[in-house]
């Protein structure tokens, strides 16, 4: 940036006048092409500041330095105040007046004005701005009234200006103001002499050698600017200026030529804000993550990364983006990146946005809910339509992905865009997968600990076709391997049997018999009875979820935890599911309140908090949990996908949907490494009705056996990698014998 920019490349006019070639156009060109700026400002005022606000950040980003002479004049009242002894020195009053000018401006500052002062503050902080004031000697007002300045570039080309554009109110746009320009590279002797004159005049005043003015020290002015205007990074200043330039382009009342100048610098700003992607300093790309990139490339830049929860799926995917960015930069000298990330929820969306910021990705566009994403993405699409190529990272929910406007905007984005589909199993949803055939980008990464969709083999096939991948997938990193290599912590697993009481058991048996009968009928009349079967399964599930003995078992678990360790950093999962039944949902909420009461009774003094789908301030709640202000979080389903709280070390599962994805993700939440966590503890309530006496009802028994086997599959998933595997076998030995099941065999079949 700035290497080939020279003043003589710009088409400077001889005179700039309001209504013709606007004086503001001159300053845009001059700031764009120069690297030093000497200015006789007059005094700080809104319109003069506004004229310099577009281009100023770009000017300083390429190493620009500035000197300002404030030509402050004492008023008649000021002189009377000095004569009356109210001020010992006119210097004090001059400095006070300049600060007062700035204070008055602060009350009416537009975003353009504030941006100018932010730039000044940055220059002062980095010692690239020098600032003095002058006062006339012997009532000589001539030089103090002159308004002039000199720009210089790296090749020592100069352009000087002077005139009535005095940076006073409305001077540059609304009044009939004009400035004259003089170039050093012209063959006209009179013009080069004028450049030399203004350069030497500025140097004479600056050095204190002028016979008609004196220098007034104004260190307090610098201090005031530093204390009252934020010092932000140069990247932030550039982004501010880009946004301000876009606002100007959208406003009426400016000439076409002025807007062309603004558009020119906007394009420069877009290029200047393309910050190189950088791997965060606290992250080391591991060998297996490098292998994942190589396999992705070998699979023609598409594939599924089947990685256990907590093994760094996010970093693995972003490393692929980083490697492609480096390759593109080396081959094409382009610093652009184009990225689309799909996520299942807004909390996970925010986690991705935070992670992208750590990797220095600046142009991030969140797209979800009722935010202004449509307008912002339309502006981005318009840029590409007009040939303005810039970087972007769009982070959208799967719900937003299905929006018609979003789908239309996707088609406007460049073909080299990389898709990262987090929790990629969500692509198998009916309303999502129907859009996959028309998806416009070839480079795709699917992230999931559980790529297979439970009970939806066709959805799984659609996902695998989309990524041109199948088991064992492009890259696979199992939980067992992650624990062995120290990527996840070790854990103990405690399955806790829950018995149904007499009333619950009787109702459970009756419903099960009805299911068995309907299952027999459904072999010939499936369409007529399937909905009834589903309702009965849901009704039976409620019995399991509401089992009264769970309250007693929870009390025992709490006391067992207290004997082993401190009851802290504990996730507790209450019953929940996908039912839209209002009564069912109310039951679940009632159960979670009962659980909270049990914690209060068994462990008085600990802090518990519910974490439900509609809970507000969820980020603050998770932050409080991470800090230790909240000891126990009681949740239904919203801790399942993507929530990253490494400090969590105890899990209590009071119910499960039976979907492997759910319990695999829940386990992964607890196994993330943390410096203060040695081993995780997982408690799992298992309701397996022992239906002794019903074994002679063969069809009914086989249905129950299949359901018990599904429960034991979950136990197997947890137990096989636990540190106390044989304790689990002992706990469930009698159940396995009754149903003629072998847990070892189940585990081997997983």
Could you characterize what this model shows?
By secondary structure, the chain is α/β, with parallel strands linked by helices. The protein has 3 domains: about 20-265, Endonuclease, Chain A, CATH 3.30.870.10; about 285-485, Rossmann fold, CATH 3.40.50.300; about 490-750, P-loop containing nucleotide triphosphate hydrolases (Rossmann fold, 3-Layer(aba) Sandwich). It is about 50% helix and about 15% strand. Strands 1-7-6-5-2-3-4-8 form an 8-stranded mixed β-sheet, sandwiched between helices. A 7-stranded parallel β-sheet has the order 11-12-10-13-14-9-15, sandwiched between helices. A 6-stranded parallel β-sheet has the order 16-21-20-17-19-18, with helices on both faces. Helix 14 (about 375-385) links the parallel strand 11 (about 365) and strand 12 (about 390-395). The protein is elongated, with a radius of gyration of 35 Å. The chain starts with 14 loop residues before the first strand and ends with a helix.
Itemize the secondary structure elements and their pairings.
Blueprint: E1 15-17, H1 23-33, E2 36-40, H2 46-61, E3 65-70, H3 76-83, H4 90-107, H5 111-125, E4 129-136, H6 142-145, E5 148-152, E6 158-163, E7 178-183, H7 189-206, E8 213-216, H8 219-228, H9 234-250, H10 256-272, H11 287-298, E9 302-307, H12 313-332, E10 338-343, H13 346-358, E11 364-367, H14 373-385, E12 392-397, H15 398-401, H16 404-410, E13 418-421, H17 430-433, E14 443-448, H18 457-466, E15 475-477, H19 479-484, E16 490-498, H20 502-545, H21 549-564, E17 570-573, H22 582-602, E18 608-611, H23 618-627, E19 632-635, E20 650-653, H24 660-670, E21 679-687, H25 698-719, H26 725-731, H27 733-738, H28 743-749
Parallel strand pairs: 2-3, 3-4, 9-14, 9-15, 10-12, 10-13, 11-12, 13-14, 16-21, 17-19, 17-20, 18-19, 20-21
Antiparallel strand pairs: 1-7, 2-5, 4-8, 5-6, 6-7
Helix pairs in contact: 1-2, 1-10, 2-5, 2-9, 2-10, 4-8, 5-9, 9-10, 11-12, 14-16, 21-22, 25-28
